[in-house]
Write a structure and sequence with these properties.
The structure holds two protein chains of two kinds.
Chain A: H1 2-8, H2 11-41, H3 46-52, H4 64-70, H5 73-104, H6 112-124, H7 129-138, H8 145-149, H9 156-167, H10 171-179, H11 184-192, H12 197-213, H13 216-221, H14 230-239, H15 245-248, H16 254-295
Chain B: H1 2-11, H2 13-37, E1 43-44, H3 50-53, E2 55-56, H4 60-67, H5 69-89, H6 91-102, H7 106-117, H8 124-135, H9 140-145, H10 155-182, H11 187-195, H12 200-225, H13 232-238, H14 244-247, H15 250-260, H16 264-292
Antiparallel strand pairs in B: 1-2
Helix pairs in contact in B: 1-2, 4-16, 5-10, 6-10, 7-10, 8-13, 10-12, 11-12, 12-16, 15-16
The chains are: A mainly alpha, B mainly alpha.
């Protein structure tokens, strides 16, 4: 059929398809080129980079930016904090969401409509920044991990997705478990969870990446620099142009410091993005599955 | 009736205590209590005196915001950024998915997908850092064109930078759900369409579009309904002192007024205004779409 189809294409159709492929190629190139540029530029000697830009004269290549970035304590502290916050947040958030989606998926659950409205309202209406900030600070959570991890731990959207997923699990499993005298808790952990691995995987991935990449909550709640996650460290280097002082202080002139600070940005981008970008292809097989889960209307 | 409910709760107490409670507690504490905190928008709130001891001032802060010359500017910045962002950004994932669907070779398709999804795993801060590097006065874009334009200082460039980098980062990832839906297109309809001599655009209309229509509508409603809740993190990371005339949006203004200047009541009032406009937008959009779409809203 495909073959026949191709033969029958008119001149105009073929032109449209070619233009389409060109557009797709252009989009792909627009992603690859900046990324490659940053990678290449991160190896180039700071003076050369400023004066001539990227060069493939390998005598001008250097690892100095990486040495400085990797020997900087703030980056490592940032990594450590980001891992801690993201892991705790993901575990907590996914667990709570999976739990609450169970009663919310059951037609017999008394109060389901009421709780549903209670939850869904919060998707569209909230107290806003200051009332939330005042609450968190009144609870004494400022400068603790809990300020970053707890307020956003329950996601109504993810609950809707989990609930929809549970509804696709055969009813017979539940009936059989209850006939055997299993409690709700036993059924949930022993029967339901084992068939929900793709759901758990996808929710975890979303929550982890979301927390890893965010900075707002950390910026407003964590003043102590020892507690700041990676994105805040990156923010001072990349956005505020304030590299950690130890990174450039040995340079004599202001100009040299500025050139080095610029180069450090490239290496910082690579070092900080490396872990997720390397891990991501391994998760790719879950994406399509996950999005199918996510696109079902709750 | 009442005793029936009581019996149900007694027999299924685990559903309430184990499954529902954690999410319910988080919702009440971190979502509903701050809604009560909105009251400070009607006070001259003083943190030492607290909510009960502060002076009530009615709509003073709303009047101050609505009558200030900045009001229209921040409101229009917010609206323009999200409306243009929606108009430019919304079709791109659909087009990408349609194009990807036409790629015959599985290995090319997989590699293209790998590249398209990649920017989603780069953090907002790093994307903004890359944007700043590429567009700096001495950066590669200016080098390439032999110009010396300071893009990050130009208010008229801010929206284009914001929207284009948003598409760069998110369009590929957003296309996944359309790609997943396109896997289920009706092949018989396609064959029938081709036999009827449909050209490629007609074919897309009768074969591909029905498969993705529902998802596109839901996405549109969600995005259009969130028109006022445009992200803080990215706008803030792309702001410079000089591009503020178009880069200051309500979310960043709320943060600066509230947490940097300590004007809690005023900031809460501005935030509340924003939320209310957002809810009204959501209701209008949902109503309109459901009218257009045979009474099927969200």
């Amino acid at each position: 059929m495909e073959k026949n189809h191709l033969i029958k294409l008119t001149y105009r159709d073929r032109a449209i398809i070619r233009i389409g492929y060109l557009l797709l190629a252009a989009f792909v190139i627009s992603i690859i080129v900046p990324v490659l540029y940053i990678i290449v530029a991160s190896f180039i000697d700071p003076v050369t980079l400023q004066n001539k830009g990227v060069t493939f004269d390998f005598d001008k290549w250097t690892l100095t930016a990486y040495e400085r970035v990797l020997s900087n304590k703030a980056i490592w502290t940032g990594f450590g904090n980001a891992i801690l916050y993201s892991v705790v947040y993901t575990a907590l958030s996914v667990f709570i969401t999976l739990l609450v989606a169970f009663p919310m998926s059951r037609p017999d659950f008394k109060g389901r409509k009421f709780f549903n409205i209670l939850f869904v309202i919060t998707m569209f209406f909230g107290g806003g920044l200051i009332p939330t900030y005042l609450l968190v600070s009144n609870l004494g959570m400022v400068n603790t991990i809990w300020a970053v991890v707890l307020p956003g731990a329950f996601s109504v959207w993810n609950m809707i997705i989990a609930r929809t997923y549970y509804k696709g699990v055969p009813k017979e499993l539940q009936e059989a478990a209850f006939v055997d005298g299993a409690s709700e808790v036993t059924y949930f952990f022993k029967v339901l969870m084992p068939v929900c691995a793709p759901l758990i995987m996808v929710l975890s991935l979303w929550q982890f990446v979301g927390m890893w990449n965010s900075y707002f909550d950390a910026m407003i709640y964590l003043n102590d620099s020892a507690k700041q996650p990676l994105q805040l460290v990156l923010r001072s280097i990349l956005i505020q142009n304030q590299p950690e002082s130890g990174m450039i202080s040995d340079m004599q002139s202001t100009a040299a410091r500025a050139q080095l600070a610029e180069l450090l940005k490239y290496a910082t981008i690579i070092v900080s993005s490396f872990p997720l970008l390397v891990m991501y292809p391994f998760f790719q097989k879950y994406f399509n599955k996950g999005i199918l889960i996510g696109s079902i209307k709750g | 009736m009442k005793s029936k409910t009581m019996l149900y709760v007694r027999d299924h107490w685990q559903l309430y205590v184990v499954f529902l409670l954690p999410a319910l507690a988080l919702t009440i504490i971190f979502r509903y209590i701050p809604m009560g905190g909105i009251l400070i928008a009607f006070q001259d709130y003083n943190p030492i005196r607290g909510l009960l001891g502060s002076r009530w001032v009615g709509l003073k802060h709303f009047a101050r915001f609505l009558s200030s010359p900045d009001f229209l500017s921040y409101l229009s910045n917010t609206l323009k950024l999200s409306v243009y962002g929606l108009l430019w950004g919304f079709p791109v994932p659909i087009i990408l998915a349609l194009l990807l669907n036409r790629v015959q070779s599985p290995s090319i398709k997989r590699n293209v997908q790998l590249v398209l999804y990649l920017p989603n795993f780069i953090s907002v801060i790093v994307v903004c850092g890359i944007v700043r590097i590429l567009l700096s006065v001495t950066g590669p874009v200016n080098n390439f064109f032999g110009t010396q334009i300071n893009f990050m200082a130009a208010p008229e460039a801010f929206r284009s930078i914001y929207i284009a980098s948003g598409i760069w980062q998110g369009a590929g990832w957003a296309s996944i759900m359309y790609t997943a839906a396109l896997a289920n297109v009706n092949q018989e309809t396609r064959e029938a369409a081709i036999l009827d001599g449909a050209n490629i655009l007609q074919e897309i209309r009768v074969v591909e579009w029905p498969a993705i229509k529902d998802i596109a509508l839901i996405q549109f409603i969600l995005q259009a309904g969130n028109i006022m809740s445009i992200g803080f993190e990215k706008a803030y990371a792309l702001q410079t002192d000089l591009n503020l005339p178009s880069a200051e949006i309500i979310a960043t203004y709320v943060y600066k007024k509230g947490l940097l200047d300590g004007d809690y009541s005023f900031s809460t009032a501005v935030g509340l205004f924003n939320t209310v406009v957002n809810v009204i937008m959501l209701l209008i959009v949902n109503k309109t779409i459901s009218k257009l779409n045979d009474e099927q809203g969200l």
